[in-house]
TrEMBL record:
This is DUF4440 domain-containing protein. InterPro entries: NTF2-like_dom_sf, SnoaL-like. Residues 11-139 form the SnoaL-like domain. Pfam families: SnoaL_3. Gene3D superfamilies: 3.10.450.50.
Amino acid sequence: MSAARTDAERVELANTALYEAMERGDTAAMDRLWLDDPDTEVSCVHPGWPVLRGRSEVLRSYALIMASTDYIQFFLTDVEIAVVGDTALVTCTENILSGAPSETEGELGPLVGQLVVATNVFRRAGDGWKVWSHHGSPVLAGREDEEEDDAAEPGA
């Protein structure tokens, strides 16, 4: 018999479920994952989008993205989780692989990679940890320590 999961482990499972729902295009799962509290407004910023506020607007955005995406897969790295009381903060890098539009109907277009840094805020609800806010920002430049490593390599 396994030990009870910690809050951080439960938050990590909820965070993973968010990305798995996107990969599957599962709008019902997405609906279950987001906080549904009339006293707390949810928010979302997809890369390059304005702030979306309100549960219906956020869920509609995910439905539109999932309906227009033939293939998407997330590889999460640099995942950090902090839990304070009934609130949890997850930061991570979304290494995204997606299918670009195809010129031929019914076929997957070329695969495209993208890096996005994300902050996901969760609130503890009666039925588990729920997404309160998501903010994704595209990575447009390398980190300073990577640039220094590249400069130190011969021929760089």
